[in-house]
Design goal:
With about 180 residues, the protein is mainly alpha-helical. It has one domain. It contains ten helices and three strands. The protein has helices at about 10, 15-25, 40-45, 65-80, 85-90, 95-110, 110-120, 125-135, 140-155, 160-180; strands spanning about 50, 55, 60. Helix content is about 60%, strand content about 5%. The longest helix is centred in the C-terminal third of the chain and has 23 residues, at about 160-180. It is globular, with a radius of gyration of 15 Å.
């Protein structure tokens, strides 16, 4: 997994050390379902959302609102490679951030039309502009990015595939930072 990028580091560094280490140890998410990051999944398996935030399986807690905790769990499960668990959180979140995670999940499962549906529900989002800048235009528009991922998924060894994977990694970090800072 590439290191956490400098723009994401301050917010992600506020997470418990074992969670941060598990994120850093996970493989870069593939454009499809990918592999399960067992260390991260184990930490998340019995996580609980409470009034004081997110309580992880190792009993470490993350001070978040209930909605932030649910948003973060959706994103953490995406990174862990469990699209079904990510979906169980994102589909229950009636906000643009939840729709964003939901769109990513459907894009990764190969349901590109449904991904676009959820990105339409996102509407304007501050993360989109940041992603255009961070990716040099690879992710200038979420709908075009869905199409590029679809094309790239057909040729896993291509430069475009690697470019999409790196843009998706920037997307995950940027949206997670946004959700943590809400």
């Amino acid at each position: 997994m590439p290191q956490l990028d400098s723009f994401a580091h301050p917010e992600l560094a506020s997470l418990p050390p074992e969670l941060t280490a598990s994120i850093a140890a996970a493989e870069m998410p593939d454009l499809d379902e990918g592999v399960v990051a067992e260390r991260l999944a184990e930490l998340l398996r019995n996580a609980e959302i409470s009034e004081s935030g997110l309580l992880l399986a190792n009993r470490e807690s993350v001070d978040l609102s209930r909605s932030q905790a649910a948003l973060c769990l959706s994103g953490f499960w995406l990174l862990a490679g469990d699209l079904e668990r990510s979906h169980s959180f994102s589909q229950e979140l009636p906000c643009r951030d939840g729709s964003f995670w939901h769109g990513i999940m459907h894009r990764r499962e190969g349901d590109f039309g449904n991904a676009k549906y959820w990105f339409r529900k996102v509407g304007e989002h501050p993360v989109f502009q940041q992603l255009a800048e961070l990716t040099g235009g690879t992710y200038a528009d979420p709908f075009d990015f869905v199409d590029e991922c679809r094309r790239s998924a057909e040729k896993k060894s291509s430069d475009a595939y690697q470019s999409c994977m790196m843009a998706q990694w920037a997307e995950w970090q940027t949206l997670m930072v946004h959700c943590l800072a809400r």
